[in-house]
Amino acid sequence: MGDRFSLEGRVALVTGAGRGIGRAIAVALGAAGAAVACAARSRDQVDAAAAEITGAGGRARALRLDVTSPEQIVTCVEEVAAALGPVDVLVNNAGVTMEKKTTEVSDEDWDVVLGTNLTSMFRCARAVAPGMMRLERGKIINIGSMYGIIGVPRYAAYCASKAAVDGLTRSLAAEWARHGIQVNCLAPGYMNTDISRAALADEKTRALLLSRIPARRIGEPEEVGALAVYLASPASDFMTGQTVYLDGGQTMAW
Amino acid sequence: MELNLADKSVIVTGGGSNIGRAISLAFARERVHLTVAEIDEGQGRKVVAEAKGLGAASATLVPTDVTRWESVQAMVREVEGRAGRVDVLVNNVGWTYDRLFMEKERTEWEREIQLNLWGMINCTRAVLDGMIARKAGAIVSMGSDAGRIGEFREGVYGACKAGVIALSKSLAREVGRHGIRLNVVCPGMTIPASDEEFGGLSMWAAEANRAWSAPDMQARIAKAYPLRRIGKPEDVAPAVLFLASDAAAFITGQTLSVSGGYTMM
User: Is the model's pLDDT at A254 over the cut of 90?
Assistant: First the structure.
């Protein structure tokens, strides 16, 4: 069975690969045998992510990418193809979060969150799909969130963007299934990353949060990596249009 | 990716036929201590022999009727005595009669409820004492898209599978604090590659279900799946292995459709 979870010979592009969940996914895909293009805005961070993969004996490239730029997305996909080969696996991970009273959210705030979290995913998918269709295989993993299905106050733009990722996932899955492309959504709950750690620093908040998670702990970025490998590998070839919540059981949507 | 399942004690109910067989053999390749809990001893023995050939740390048939609580208790006691524990339970036994609700006999509903729901309740209840004591365990149950979206000719069967999903979620909440995870995999129609892959007691051998094997029926079903083909037992097994493994340590209460995109929700 191990071989069905192998990514040997595959090329993966991970957006937002500089830190947190994106970086953990990039490292896990690299360890599973994929050549990984690590893309993010920060040059230092993507260099470090790529170095971690090559240091472990894998293949990787660091690429600067601001996913809010349509031109950079097109260029990035071309660069990956030239350096590593056509993209077999796209991980749409780059995203921003924003906590604000909705009455204080400006039009610009809203556009930044939706543009980064949703529109960029459509553009990246559109950019890699023709190559995947030529290969007659491909995996697109969109990073959603538990916040896409539970209502969280002061996160209107973020929650809306992540709920929309589900819709995007299903539509692309239905449209591209005949080309051998599987599109699934990986939706984390509270994870041990910089963003969550800040929220969990307060002991009372932490206790309240953990009481709502059946597993009684938050997740580790490495656990997102393992699920991403499953969704990127032939092991999941008959699965498309699904959202998998990685949240210790906090949300159990039907 | 390594799933690190080697030497785990794994029970697969109905592990002799079709999807259960593929799950048993996939676990065997991961070198687990495999228990095939089967009512069909002949079919179970065949799969146990194959499992040994594929590298299982051990493979044992325990004749089991999952609808009978005493039989299930005895099976779990046997495994715990022999292997020391149960790390993974796969509730795979399933059964349906391909008939409209209005055309089914009450005895057929009762058989569906016994096998699909009582079987899962019995086996799950029986392994939980040990799992709670050891504060670890993974239970993967076979659901069905019929239990998520409703399906023609699968009314009571779908109701049972919806029950499997709901019970898994409730228990995920109740026993998550003990380090135990429950998840559900929903295959679509999944056809065996040959008659060797199921026994005479499998629902694939039932007269009521003959229509499924007709090529034109299979072509019609494949058209309804975005991936344009019917599932094979080997499509489903990796999802079960993944959810059973520590790679899915933070995933619980989830329902995963592995059905070519038939159901997306």
Answer: no
B25–chain A Cβ distance below 8 A for any pair: no
Which residues 94-113 on chain A approach chain B with CB closer than 8 angstroms?
A: none
Reported confidence tier of residue A193, pLDDT bands at 50, 70, 90:
confident
Residues A14 and B145: their CA atoms lie apart, in Å, by 31
B26 vs A contacts (CB less than 8 Å): 1
Domain count, chain A: 1
- Select the residue of B1, B228, B258 nearest A178 (Cβ to Cβ): B228
Write the CATH number for A101.
3.40.50.720
ipTM (interface predicted TM): 0.89
Kindly report each contact of residues B73-80 with a partner whose C-beta sits within 8 Å and lies 24 or more positions away, as own/partner.
Answer: B73/B126, B75/B11, B75/B35, B75/B37, B75/B126, B76/B11, B76/B123, B76/B126, B76/B127, B76/B130, B79/B9, B79/B11, B79/B35, B80/B130
Active site residue A245: no
Residue bearing tokens 């059905």: B259
Question: B231 vs A238: CB contact, 8 Å cut-off?
Answer: yes
A39: how many CB neighbours lie within 10 A of its CB?
Answer: 33
**Which residue out of A147, A155, A158, A245 is catalytically annotated?**
A158
Residue A2 pLDDT more than 60? no
B173, A248: Cβ pair inside 8 Å?
no
Catalogue the E-assigned strands of chain B: 9-13, 33-38, 58-63, 88-91, 137-142, 180-187, 255-258
Question: A164: distance to nearest CA of chain B, Å?
Answer: 13
Residue B244, CA distances (Å) to B8, B52, B146, B163 in order: 10, 20, 23, 20
The token duo for B40 is: 């069909």
Are A177 and B226 within 8 A, CB to CB?
yes
Which regions of chain B are under pLDDT 50?
Answer: none
**A9: phi then psi, degrees, rounded to nearest 5:** 85, 0
Quote the CA–CA distance of A216 and A196 in Å, as a whole number: 15
CA distance B217 to B55: 37
Which range marks the domain in which residue A145 is found? 2-253
The shortest C-alpha distance from B70 to chain A (Å) reads 31
Whether the CB of A70 is below 8 Å from some CB of chain B: the reply is: no
Q: What is the CA radius of gyration of chain A?
A: 17
- State the pLDDT at residue A1: 46
Residue B1 to residue A28, Cβ atoms within 8 A: yes
Nearest residue of chain A to residue B189 (CA atoms): A238
